[in-house]
Design a protein that fits this description.
GO molecular function, one term: ATP binding
CATH topology of the largest domain: Rossmann fold
Mean pLDDT: 79
CATH class of the largest domain: Alpha Beta
Structural class: mainly alpha
Low-confidence stretches: none
Distance between the termini: 24 Å
Radius of gyration: 28 Å
InterPro entries: Helicase_ATP-bd, P-loop_NTPase, SNF2-like_sf, SNF2_N
Pfam families: SNF2-rel_dom
Strand content: 5-15%
Shape: elongated
Strand order of the largest sheet: 1-2
Oligomer: single chain
Order of helices and strands: HHEHEHHHHHHHHHH
Protein name: Helicase ATP-binding domain-containing protein
Number of helices: 13
Number of domains: 2
Length: 249
Amino acid sequence: MPKTVGPDFPIIITSYEMAMFDAKFLANYKWKYVVVDEGHRLKNTKCKLLRELRRIPMDNKLLLTGTPLQNNLAELWSLLNFILPDIFSSHEEFESWFDFSGKADEELEEETDEKKRVLVVSKLHAILRPFLLRRMKEDVEHMLPRKKEIIIYANMTEHQKQIQNHLIEQTFDDYLHESADIVLRRPGIKTKLNNLLIQLRKNCGHPDLFHSAFDSNSLYPPVDKLLEQCGKFQLLDRLLNALIKRNHK
């Protein structure tokens, strides 16, 4: 987190990793709202993210998740404990709410396992109802704009093509004169092929992912140097110039 951030700012958007890294900085402020996307990541009571978030002063908390009902009561309790620690303070007490072994024998003797499961689910829904705002896909789908997909192809530069050819030739040179079945039966061939795909993907991203152009002082290389080596960067440069002229967001 930049140390130049002043005391007045409306919002901070960050990732889980950066939130953990900047936990000390974030703890210096009292937050009006903290919204955690993919809130089910807090289901493990011992995870570092949950531990660091608890150190941050906050008035209101909101978890966004597609799977609020966990298969494990301990995981569900972890989410509720983060949201409302005063109400869901004890994991043991929370578990006891769903322990029906103490019911009178006559109540349970006729119940099947399926009925007990329905009873537990009903109680879970009753507990969650005051704290859960649920939105089904059919409730909001009509308000969403139609999906629009634009595919733009970026040609590789000569530098990228040279690296790609070198990677392919280096990997397959030993196998060119062997039959397909012998090659596929050879131990480790699958790992080597997977590794090749990863290297080819890196080359498409930018050749500097192989050999960094940064010097020993970690200075950025010239922008024109970055552009001339990568087709995607050249396409991005053209797009940004056009979008900026149109005041595109």
